[in-house]
Amino acid sequence: MPVITLDDVKRALVEGAGVDAGVDLERGIATLTFEELGYDSLAVLETGLRLGRENGVEIDDEQLADIETPQDLADAVNQALAEAAVA
Amino acid sequence: MIREPAAITGIGIVSPIGNDREAHWIAQQKGVHGIAAVERFDASSYASTLAGEVRDLDPAPALGGRLMSSTDWMTQMSLVAAAEAVADSGIAERHEPGRCGVFTASTAGGYEFGQRELQNLWSRGPKYVSAYQSYAWFYAVNTGQISIRHGFKGHSGVVVADAAGALDALASSAAHLHHGNAAMVSGAVDGTLCPWGWVAHVAGGGTTSASDPETAYLPFDPRASGAVVGEGGAHLVLERAADATGRAYALLVGHASGFVRSSQDPTTVLRRVVEAALADADVRPDRIDLVLADGAGTVAADADEAAVLRSVFGPRRVPVTVPKAAVGRLQAGGAALDVAVAALALRDGLTPPTVHSQVDPAHGIDLVTEPRAGSLNSVLVVARGRGGFVSAVVLTSPHHHPEGA
Lengths: 87, 405
Hints:
The structure holds 2 protein chains of 2 kinds. Chain A has 6 helices and no strands. Chain A is mainly α. Chain A is globular, with a radius of gyration of 12 Å. The model of chain A has no long low-confidence stretch (mean pLDDT 92). Chain B is 35% helix and 20% strand. Chain B folds into 2 domains: 6-243, Thiolase/Chalcone synthase (Peroxisomal Thiolase, Chain A, domain 1, 3-Layer(aba) Sandwich); 250-396, Peroxisomal Thiolase, Chain A, domain 1 (3-Layer(aba) Sandwich). Chain B has 13 helices and 16 strands. By secondary structure, chain B is α/β, with parallel strands linked by helices. In chain B, strand 10 (290-292), helix 12 and strand 11 form a beta-alpha-beta unit. Chain B has helices at residues 21-30, 60-63, 65-70, 73-89, 91-94, 111-124, 133-136, 141-150, 165-178, 195-204, 266-281, 299-313, 332-348; strands at 6-14, 35-37, 50-52, 100-105, 157-159, 183-190, 229-230, 232-240, 250-259, 290-292, 319-321, 350-351, 366-367, 372-373, 378-384, 389-396. Chains A and B meet through helix 1 and helix 4 of A and helix 3 of B.
């Protein structure tokens, strides 16, 4: 069952990487890639680190490097949580 | 060495007395100073308690949330000054971005950002260190962020030579114009007003322990007790002089740099650098109308600089001013601000005063302590950095035609 939602990704993104005026995260978070939203790979790394430490899991850097959309990131965190629960 | 004169066609300033070019210039002429007790953090327990702080500047609306999260304060100030210089010059409309480069100077990078992330590392652990620490602290970060923000992809670089570096960055920029770039954003905006940076300044020596802002930083004054540290600086846009007819504040025509080894007499190197800059500019010493001196603010270093000026310029008591007496020493930003002020002085025929100082007559220089009007043709800017860095540049008025030219 998913624990992390797009709202969590949005909050961590704003806290860690900031948001520019004119960027509509409310609408874009579900439909656009990080790049289309104006975020580079470091912003994804920073957001992934935040979500990981908030939830007590670790997503490795290589996996973060392949993430393109906020939903990908939410999925990666949820997968890590699921694996941690089984282990 | 400057092979071809480079025109200064844009100036952007952020300083303790003005957050844009003309605000700074007006305050500088009025003799306003920006030195006060440190407000950014509690410095009351340190040996030095005064600073030149940039005030009332909110870069957030212009830079946006993403840059505010990923950059140090000194980079934010740098981006504000660079945007002003770029807009002032009009290079974004005039040249291909692939032929515009950025060459800045830095002393320590993003120290305040670095301090915060080190605190996160040691108090909470590695997972709490911002991913942006990877570049936010770095010496080259201002060059990179200016390049990204304006889309300038021409040859770029950074020089780290303490307080002398901005003059070297300008000379390197002139060389890049000679080698194909159409325009360069250069200069330096710097600042390390945080406890970690402050410890380094105080431990490094040369900072005053005075508590009265009016008598704390007194270059060439027998009461000199050391310098006040400040933040800010200037960015300048350089273009080829031939492309900038009618648009130039001033021309950068000469540069030299040197390094004082610990076993050397500093005056030997300083004199050689000043003479080499004048020779590079092909300007005779008697044609220099004004010197913007380094003005370290310690009795020994000021005596060295005055001795060199006397030996180069002879008994005529060359006019000297230290505009940074009003703002403190801005690390790499200081010499960049001096070049910006020199360019504005050439534009307006106005010499800004050295605030607060009463010159030691033994120095044999004409220290300008009140605003002075009178057209200027050629100006020398001298800068010295911690550790032995020495650089000098010569600027001339774009309207000036030396004999024989």
